[in-house]
Specification:
Chain A: Belongs to the ABC transporter superfamily. Chain A: It comes from Sulfitobacter sabulilitoris. Chain A: Keywords: ATP-binding, Nucleotide-binding, Transport. Chain A: GO terms for molecular function: ATP binding; ATP hydrolysis activity. The complex is a heterodimer of chains A (about 270) and B (about 290). Chain A has 2 domains: about 1-95 and about 175-270, P-loop containing nucleotide triphosphate hydrolases (Rossmann fold, 3-Layer(aba) Sandwich); about 105-170, no CATH class. Helix content of chain A is about 40%, strand content about 25%. Chain A is built from 9 helices and 9 strands. Chain A has helices at about 1-10, 65-70, 90-95, 110-125, 125-140, 155-170, 185-205, 215-220, 255-270; strands at about 20-30, 35-50, 50-55, 80-85, 95-100, 175-180, 205-210, 225-230, 235-240. Chain A is globular, with a radius of gyration of 19 Å. In chain B, helix 4 runs antiparallel to helix 5. Chain B has about 290 residues and is mainly α. Chain B has 12 helices and no strands. Chain B has helices at about 1-35, 45-50, 60-75, 85-115, 115-130, 135-150, 155-175, 180-190, 195-205, 210-230, 240-250, 250-285. Chain B is elongated, with a radius of gyration of 24 Å. The chains are: A alpha/beta (about 270), B mainly alpha (about 290). The interface of A and B includes residues 101, 108 and 121 of A.
Amino acid sequence: MANELNKLRQTQAPSPATSVIRAQNLDLTFQTNDGPVHALKDVSLDIGAGDFVSFIGPSGCGKTTFLRVMADLEQPTGGTVTVNGVSPEEARRARAYGYVFQAAGLYPWRTIGGNIRLPLEIMGYSRADQDARVARVLELVELDGFEKKYPWQLSGGMQQRASIARALAFDADILLMDEPFGALDEIVRDHLNEQLLKLWDRTGKTIAFVTHSIPEAVYLSTKIVVMSPRPGRITDVIDSPLPRDRPLDIRDTPEFLEVAHRVREGLRAGHGDD
Amino acid sequence: MRQSVVPVLTVVGALFVVWYAAAVWLNAPWAHDKAKRSGEVLSVSALVADTWAQDKPKLPAPHQVAIELWETTVEKKITSKRSLVYHSWVTLSATILGFVLGTGLGTLLAVGIVFNRTMDMSVMPWVIASQTIPILAIAPMIIVVLNAVGISGLLPKAMISMYLSFFPVVVGMVKGLRSPDAMQLDQMRTWNASASQTFWRLRLPSSMPYLFTSLKIGMAASLVGAIVGELPTGAIAGLGARLLAGSYYGQTIQIWSALIMAAALAAALVGIIGILQRVTLKRMGMAQ
């Protein structure tokens, strides 16, 4: 297994310093019945290969919209964005990313294994390959043995892990996560954060992660993007000085608290004009 | 289950009391006329006994209908033209065929409406308009037109059943196929799923609860369609024919037994769909 994972890491982790997602002067205005809403204004950002980038900000700051633009679920009205060097649409067609939504969104009529198999069926993987991949990602999210269970037989946290496994099952080296743990309680959340870091370390994926929890953002990320609303824009980008290896109690160290403080300052500054 | 037995029996009992009382009230004039002509004076008990045992009552008493039902189902050979089982089968076969055709047509139209914007804009108004035409007005025309091109028997009746039963299926399936939420559709998009993959793997399974609700309404409508379809054929066979013949000859007992048979048939058919619904949705993890 360890060998297999090493191989996985070698094939999936591109050389560092190459930029996987690049946004330049991104603008997005929604036309609504109450007039135009400026969801993103002049957003520029580089996400390198293997980065774990968190987007944090109050609701309406455009963090989810930004993620959806990367996923080709929203069309920007100005500026450019590339994913793996191509347009988001081409990246989506090439199945370059896995997307994890706030709700697990598992189909009740499929088993956990069947749910993870779903994107694999759609993408035309062979039956044997599907079986191998399902087993591998279930092991990655520590759900081995739950393949034959139905979603309603699992807790909310386990369902969300299954949905992460589903996003990992195919060969996408980018993982886009939109507040995946937002609906879970604190204890489950801590546990899943720890697991997610381990998983990121083992697979070498590039992760873009939307959250509104400061400790979660600081604990997980190599880079924290602070955003503010009306219009949605980036107010601060913090490169985390924390080491890659992070036990949960790192959250009590002065370095951690310092980063958290800077994030809080950034959020407060963004709110200054309210 | 057990707790519902007493209330249900109470309601049924109350209905029987009302029914027997109404039979006395409605059939009393006839009994009085008869008595007057023969110069008798009716006692209350004789009046009641007479009103519950007339040959052609305005309202037959429950036991008269029950006896008629027994005689025409159990005591007649099912090949006999007077067997209610034979007539029920004639109606049932048209109902089932019409229901199957209607479900197929309704599903096809719903798929078209969901996937094709032109169909969405153009077909739905016609579907609704089709149901505003009284079925009694259009049924004879369907029979006559199909007869003119040489089609008679089961199919014309099934067409009328189909005409009534496709509507709830269209409405329910359009709603059902559109029931996946924006997140589920976005998710399919992130996997670059084709429209047909989204249909078979997401839209169709999601529509199942809506489909079964529609099928129940469609089945009942289909039975009504088959009975109405039997009325203009000159009353040869089927429950509709029994109703028509009964009304020609003032055979109210025959009418009522055909009505009860039709109601029992509808209840059984809808009940079967209900069981299928429960089993399917439970297996799909979608039972409410």
